[in-house]
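2024-03-11 09:14:02 DEBUG pipeline.ingest accepted 1 chain
2024-03-11 09:14:02 DEBUG pipeline.ingest length=205
2024-03-11 09:14:03 DEBUG pipeline.predict start
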Amino acid sequence: MSEYDHEPTRGLPGHLPADEHIVWQSSPDWKALAKAALHIRLSAAYFGIIILWAISRSDMNTAIAVSLLGAIVIAMFVAFAWGVSRTTVYTLTNKRIILRVGVALNKCINLPLSEIESANLKMLAGDHGSIVLSLKGAPRLGYFMLWPHARSLRFISPQPMLRAVPDARAFAQLLFKTTQKVQAVAPVEARRSNSQDVPFQGVPA
């Protein structure tokens, strides 16, 4: 028995209203998530440098101890990324984005498309990418409530982030077209070289 057996539809806490339907649904790729959100390669490099430094000083005890510690830490990161991937479902309907998240305690976060101020796609390896969402008005979501589904280090004004989704370019275009039907949005020029496709923002009425 799964903790999500109560869901009438995968990723949703209840039945959708008659005028709402699912447009897209997916989950993060755990490998891409481990690299992008948990910075597993940076962690491996950090432990590797310490190990090489210890070896250069002929301190094999330290090298062995750090090797074991590094292996444990990286294994924990991998396990966490796999758990996040298994328990997370991102859903786009014709009215909102729903994030079903939580490895230990699951919760659903509703983001109405009418409240999205801007969205930006950051491509990762392969066809995976992450979508950063900026919401209108004052922040209503806590950073630690969202993490790792939040833009890194944005504590004051947390930005929800759909992490490591497959076929991210196609999803970015689908999100743009779906949001256009709810509010006036327009494409804007990418501000950074690692921003791909068409970021967009709301158009004031």
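2024-03-11 09:14:41 DEBUG pipeline.report DSSP finds five helices and nine strands in the chain.
2024-03-11 09:14:41 DEBUG pipeline.predict end
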